[in-house]
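Hi,

Apologies if this is the wrong queue. I'm a grad student, and the batch job for GAL3A protein from Podilymbus podiceps produced an output file that my downstream script rejects. I'm not sure whether the problem is my script or the file. Here is the sequence I used:
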Amino acid sequence: MGKRVALVLAGCGVFDGSEIHEASAALVHLSRGGAEVKIFAPNIEQRDVVNHLKGSPTEEKRNVLVESARLARGNIQDLAELKANEFDAVIFPGGFGVAKNLCSWAVDGKNCTVNEHVNSTLQAFHSAKKPIGLCCISPVLAAKVFPGCEVTVGQDKNVDGRFPDAETASAIAELGCKHICKNVNESHVDKANKIVTTCAFMCKAPLHEIFDGIGTMVQEVLKLA
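Support response: The file is valid. Your script probably expects a header line. Output copied below for reference.
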């Protein structure tokens, strides 16, 4: 019987929601791993709505759950309804929606607050010793909620211009967590906390390398589940 995995989204689109390629990659690798997946998102208003063609905010108002339903092909539930005892693991794809909608990292950095349902979900899986997978910017959720944990967002220096957001590693360290430098096609496993992370689009890399890195994260999550 396949592992039961909850996937938590933050909208639809890299600049104001979940990164579409990351969400899709996670779903493909979960499918390949024989997992039974259910998708969730918080029923809240987005912090902002970005015109992805122009890269600038608009005056629109959108709902995170409604937008996430685009990625879920309509098959999605309110995050408030997620019960950790019904799943073996949880995975959070990245995208700026994580830093805007699931928490306030985009505005407040290490001083951010985490959405109450996101926080309770993370706490529930952690307390039950069930694995948590995070990619791209979403490892900051674990860094904020679980001081002392180990995560990766890639490198802590902007090596060859490939890691333009390398300062995120320093902010994670300031939260009392350990940042582990990894390449884009790798993931890090914090065995003590059962937290698995990979940098994905925090690295400027070919799409197939990002896809493979997410694959290692999913595989490690399923091993721990």
